[in-house]
From TrEMBL:
The keyword DNA-binding applies. It holds the Pfam family Sigma70_r4_2. This is Sigma-70 region 4 type 2. SUPFAM superfamilies: C-terminal effector domain of the bipartite response regulators, Sigma3 and sigma4 domains of RNA polymerase sigma factors. The lineage of its organism: Bacteria, Bacillati, Bacillota, Clostridia, Thermosediminibacterales. InterPro entries: RNA_pol_sigma70_r4_t2, RNA_pol_sigma_r3/r4-like, Sig_transdc_resp-reg_C-effctor, WalR-like, WH-like_DNA-bd_sf. It comes from Thermosediminibacter oceani (strain ATCC BAA-1034 / DSM 16646 / JW/IW-1228P). One of its GO terms (molecular function) is sigma factor activity. Residues 73-117 form the RNA polymerase sigma factor 70 region 4 type domain. Keywords: DNA-binding. The keyword Thylakoid does not apply. GO terms for biological process: DNA-templated transcription initiation.
Length: 176
């Protein structure tokens, strides 16, 4: 069964498309200038269109109903999920009335939820599990590349014991 993309997922797809076109356009700059000028102009127009569409989709995430998928909702805190689930059907004002919160508070919580989802997607692309501290992220990346704990300690200017403690915490949060 085909699964529909959420507005949030579609925004990411359009942004990725624009980035891929920018990369291709940059590669054309190295080739014969006269031969590729038309291609670069067309790509520039396509990039602007994709970026414009991504901006529209970003507004839809914040202002239209049904903008998040079930998978995305599962990544949120209880309060964020509650607001986001209500946002699938109700306006910010209606949610404020149902929850007893101020409208701007409801909007702020929903914005936080959307930011959290975007960060989680970025980390997933980078291969970094969610929930790690900045130091744990550094240790995780180095360790997953095969760097030994002793080398990690010297690279990060921390003791070997700290590396082992953080690795144990990382292992309890992930499967490495």
């Amino acid at each position: 069964m085909q699964r529909w993309s959420s507005w949030s997922e579609m925004e990411d797809q359009y942004r990725e498309g624009a980035l891929a076109l920018k990369t291709a356009r940059d590669r054309l700059k190295d080739e014969d200038y006269q031969r590729t000028i038309a291609d670069r102009e067309i790509m520039g127009s396509m990039i602007r269109d994709l970026e414009d569409t991504a901006r529209v989709l970003k507004r839809k995430v914040l202002y239209e109903f049904g903008s998040l998928s079930e998978d995305e909702l599962a990544l949120l805190t209880d309060r964020q999920r509650q607001i986001a689930e209500l946002r699938q059907r109700y306006s910010y004002r209606e949610i404020a009335e149902k929850t007893g919160l101020a409208v701007n508070t409801v909007f702020y919580i929903y914005q936080q939820a959307v930011r959290k989802l975007k960060q989680a997607k970025r980390k997933k692309k980078e291969g970094i599990p969610p929930g790690l501290s900045p130091q744990q992220k550094e240790i995780y990346v180095l360790y997953s590349r095969g760097v030994k704990p002793k080398e990690i300690a010297s690279k990060l200017n921390i003791s070997r014991e700290v590396v082992y403690v953080q690795l144990n915490r990382i292992k309890s949060l992930t499967k490495i």
